[in-house]
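Researcher: Sequence recovery benchmark, item below. Answer with residues only.
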């Protein structure tokens, strides 16, 4: 992942936070893995579904 791509991701995540959505470190890590080609969308979705949900 290039510096430009990382900067663009950070900007997108900052915009998402400003809209009122929670962006966790895990979310950022997942985005980086996806953008770097280390995981496919379908495999990432499977991982996310298997993660324990947070109590609200």
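Model:
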């Amino acid at each position: 992942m290039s510096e430009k791509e990382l900067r663009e991701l950070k900007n997108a995540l900052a915009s998402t936070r400003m809209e009122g959505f929670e962006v966790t470190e895990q979310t950022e890590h997942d985005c980086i893995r996806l953008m770097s080609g280390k995981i496919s969308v379908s495999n990432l979705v499977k991982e996310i579904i298997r993660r324990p949900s947070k109590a609200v």
